[in-house]
Description:
By secondary structure, the chain is an alpha/beta fold.
Amino acid sequence: MAEKFAVIAKEHGGIMRFVQVSCLGSSLSSPSRFLRAKAAGEEAVLKEFPEATVMKPAVMIGTGDRIMNRWAQFAEKYGFLPLIGDGSTKIQPVYVIDVASAIVAALKDDGTSMGKVYELGGPEIFSVHELAELMYDMIREWPCYVNVPLPIAKAISMPTEVLLKKVPFPLPNPDIFNLDQVHAFATDTIVSENALTFMDLGIVPHKLKGYPVEYLIQYRKGGPQFGSTVSEKVNPDWP
């Protein structure tokens, strides 16, 4: 699909700017189908439209995101959160508004971003466990984790993966144990040392703690002003 859009844009003749939104960590050799598809899209777009700008955001955080929302929903429903591996994988989540700002900045510049690739990570590097701690802090619940070793996580994900390939119609992916996410959490995904970043677009990305994750208050038990840890003086084992 990305290649088709690039061909149409090139053949049109009057379209000067093309921005392809990919993903940090995309690679044709990745074990993740999603990351391979993103890398193929980048390659196809740049082949047809060499002047295109490629944005490679890290996992994006914001209302409706596919990571912290899913974690909060799972923790709210089951009372714990499974961590693939030991939660030590490094990621560099980015506020979705900053990614949007980067795209706008590229479209408005004097052409300096044309034909370039930008890696968009937030100002902080988290382990998966640390990001989960931020989620728990926002929903005001006592953190409870179950470490799931990588081989076991893959084994849990495989039956669904096989089913998704065999049925002739689309099926929803599991929120936690889908194979792409398992592969993603098996490898550190941070901005490369010499990559073009937000700084090159004149943007200072937001730290996540605070406003960017305030949407998680919807998962607090009893309403936005409440939650199990509203008073840290109360022990969760207190009868």
